[in-house]
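Input chain follows. Return C-alpha cells only.
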Amino acid sequence: MQTPEKPTPKEEQMGMPERQAYSLNSRKVAEATRSWLEKRGIKIEEIAELVLFLQKKYYPGLTMEECVHNVEKVLEKREVQNAVLTGIQLDVLAEEGKLLSPLQEMIKNDEGLYGVDEILALSIVNVYGSIGLTNFGYVDKLKPGVLERLNDKSLGPVHTFLDDIVGAIASAASSRIAHNKQSEREVEIELPKEPGDD
C-alpha cells in the first residue's frame, strides 16, 4: 500500500487532498511491455526468428526454443521495457495525430533525417555489449522477416520506433547467445583460471 504524501503549501491552499506516493510496480511494467508488443502485432516468435536468422550461421545447432528464451530474457530488462514502452507510445500518438508539429509529421512519415528512433533502440542493443551494434546495423539495413512488415508504410500503422525496437531486441538476444556460447566453450575446454579469478 502506498503512503500518502502531504500536499504542497500551494495544494493545501487549493484544498487538494493528500497525494499517493509514487511507487513503481515492476510486474506491471513487464506486463505492459508484453501487452503493448502484442497490441502492435508483434509475436515473441517473430523476434526469435530474427535471432535465428542472425545466429544460425555461427551456431548451426541453435534452436528456435533457445532464441525465444533469449528474447524473453532481453525483455526482462527494465531498460528494454522502458525503451519499448516509450517508443510504442510515440508511434501510437503519431498514428492518432496527437503530437505537435513538426514532430508529428516527422514520426508519422518516418523522416529519414530523424534518427531518435535508432538512438532509443541503441539503449536496447547495448544491454548485452557492443557486439549487438553490428547485428542491429545488419538487420536494420536488410529488414528481414517481421521488420519488412513493420516498414511497409502502405499498411497504415505507424511503426517508426517499433521496427527499430524489434530489431534491437533481436540484436540484444543474439549478443546474449554469443556471450553464453563463448562461456560454454570455455567451460568445455576448461580454460585455466587467471590469477585473481577466484
